[in-house]
Amino acid sequence: MSNYSNSLKKISKQLEVPDGFIRLSGPLEHDSIVNGDGLRAVLWTQGCPNGCIGCQNPETWDYCAGMLVPIKDVLEQLSKFKGQTGLTFCGGEPFVQAKACRTIADYVRKEFGWDVWSFSGFTYEGIREYGGEPWEFLKSLDALIDGPFILKQRDLSLRFRGSRNQRLLKLELGTAQILKIE
């Protein structure tokens, strides 16, 4: 099986959560300047099928770990974060909880005017090929940092990325068309 086919198989392993809930690996953060442009809130999702060697968050891989949290509680907590300009989804792998992430992304954009970014161990092309909820979540983003972390390509000089294969993609809201690649 090719790496691309394997990636599509992995993205199909969506984390099962009840409607109106999301599985988080830890508390929400605020005032981050390292997970995207501006002052950002950060949401850490639980569950990742990629298992990248050298991952900085291996505790987020287990689909059964973390905390099952009502989305309404997440939105309430985000509303208390003052001075933020955006929200970034980290993980784990946000795209295995695409429906819940999209709900949150759409809310913070509408209610707070925040831009929305996400990290993913999947590539843009893999998400597009898979379609479904992951593609719909991608269409709600302003930026995606895509690709698995590859330890042999680690480069700490890159902005918002850990390895040279990863890209920072600026996206057109609503279509997910790539506007700029860094």
Question: Would you mind describing this structure in some detail?
Answer:
There is one protein chain. This protein has 182 residues and is of the alpha/beta class. The chain has a single domain, classed as Aldolase class I (TIM Barrel). It contains five helices and nine strands. The strands form two sheets. A seven-stranded mixed sheet has the order 2-3-5-6-7-8-9, covered by helices on one side. The chain is globular. 40% of the residues are buried.
- Biggest β-sheet description: 7 strands, mixed
From the N-terminal CA to the C-terminal CA, the straight-line distance is 30 Å
Estimated helix fraction: 25-40%
Number of helices: 5
Q: What characteristic shape results from the CA principal axes? A: globular
Q: Which strands sit side by side, in order, in the main sheet?
A: 2-3-5-6-7-8-9
E-strand count: 9
CATH architecture: Alpha-Beta Barrel
Looking at the chains present, what oligomeric state does this protein adopt?
single chain
**CATH class assignment:** Alpha Beta
Segments where pLDDT lies below 50 for 5+ residues? none
Brief overview, please?
The chain is α/β, with parallel strands linked by helices. Helix content is 26%, strand content 22%. It has helices at 3-11, 71-79, 98-112, 124-130, 132-139, and strands spanning 21-24, 29-32, 40-44, 67-70, 86-90, 115-119, 143-146, 167-171, 178-181.
